[in-house]
Amino acid sequence: MKKILFLPLLQMQSGHHQVAEAIMDLLKNHTDDVIFKKIDLLSYTNKSLEKMITNGYLKWIRYAPESYNLAYKSFFYVPPAKGHSFKWYQPLFMKKMEQLLAEENPDLIVCTHAFPSNLLSKLKMKGKCDIPVINVYTDFFINSIWGREGIDAHFLPSQYVKEHLLKKYQIPTQRLLVTGIPVHERITKNDVWNKTNNLRPQILIAGGNSGLGGIAKLADELKRSTQIDYLVLCGKNRKLYEEVRSWNLAHIKPLPYLSSRTEMNNIYEAVDAIMTKPGGVTVSEALKKRLPIFVHSMLPGQEEINLHHLKDKELAFELEQKLPLEKQLLAVLQDAGKMKRWEQAVDAYQQGIELNHPESMVDAIKVILDQETSCIQAAVGSQQKVLQRAGA
């Protein structure tokens, strides 16, 4: 029985955890000889430290977003020549990582956060870790903290990122696999924009599991809307749910936290577009469902950079805060030229994904698990040909 160790960071529910859980569920559904464990290194090191960092992060992005944005870009989104070594963490966290590996003795490690990837890269280069490691990226760019040297495989969000790693760091191409940002397999893929037949567009508003994202700030605009119906995902924010429900408006329906991915998939199928912040997982689900993406707000740091990349590739539309909301939405959805360009952009994005079937990703992970990383591309290519012949 092989064992895979998944390493996100922090305890709060985030894209790092969602991606890890999506891959874990995928393997559970398609294999019967692998066991899994998901561990947050910070909690493993010191639970009080993890709580302090989590609370500090949430307060920072809430009360001083501009300074967080500046700090993120200065420390985590800089060219390697200007990078920071962060040597202060190494004595504690390198020791704890070695301790964790000795205790768990995994056959494969999957990093969905840059911090554990960085530590493992250093251990590998020092000859202190011979376990295969996969980096699975949860944003549409790669920050400077992610480990690169010694990493056995990279599951990449796009062809653009693959080309960047090839040119900038000369990482062997057989280690680079474009998977998109992995989402749960119950979020099924649409090959065309599945526009509903409703006379009024149906827009899903998502703010993340915690209800963040400035939805409450849109209240007046939503209430005044006369040509669009809205479904508002409130996540675990009960206060937001009760607030939206108290409006008692036929064209605005609040939805509580949904744990069922099948139910979430059904909601995606029932709407014409999504209005959200540019988190990697939600955007990837929308791209897989081929839903037009409107960005109404963003968290500082990662999400702002995500939006830059999405707009550059014409995969998302940014809403202007000072212009009427409904008018902006309709101006895109009812413009055949804009929608055609968006569909072409989504075509290009989806065609660039190399592992676009659950079976092909499972196949690639199994190859890496068996420490045959030089054969990854051949195995993946073979699997994809089988799927194509089967009409998958």
From TrEMBL:
Residue span(s) of domain Diacylglycerol glucosyltransferase N-terminal: 16-183
Q: What is this protein called?
A: Monogalactosyldiacylglycerol (MGDG) synthase
Query: Can you supply one Gene Ontology CC term for this chain's record?
Result: membrane
InterPro entries membership: Diacylglyc_glucosyltr_N, Glycosyltransf_28_UgtP
Q: Family assignment? A: Belongs to the glycosyltransferase 28 family.
- PANTHER family the record matches: MONOGALACTOSYLDIACYLGLYCEROL SYNTHASE, MONOGALACTOSYLDIACYLGLYCEROL SYNTHASE 1, CHLOROPLASTIC
Q: In this record, what's one Pfam family?
A: MGDG_synth
Q: Which GO terms describe its biological process?
A: glycolipid biosynthetic process
For the keyword Transferase, the answer is yes
Spell out the molecular function terms from Gene Ontology.
Answer: hexosyltransferase activity
Q: What is the lineage of its organism?
A: Bacteria, Bacillati, Bacillota, Bacilli, Bacillales
Read off the SUPFAM superfamilies from this record.
Answer: UDP-Glycosyltransferase/glycogen phosphorylase
Q: Which UniProt keywords apply?
A: Glycosyltransferase, Transferase
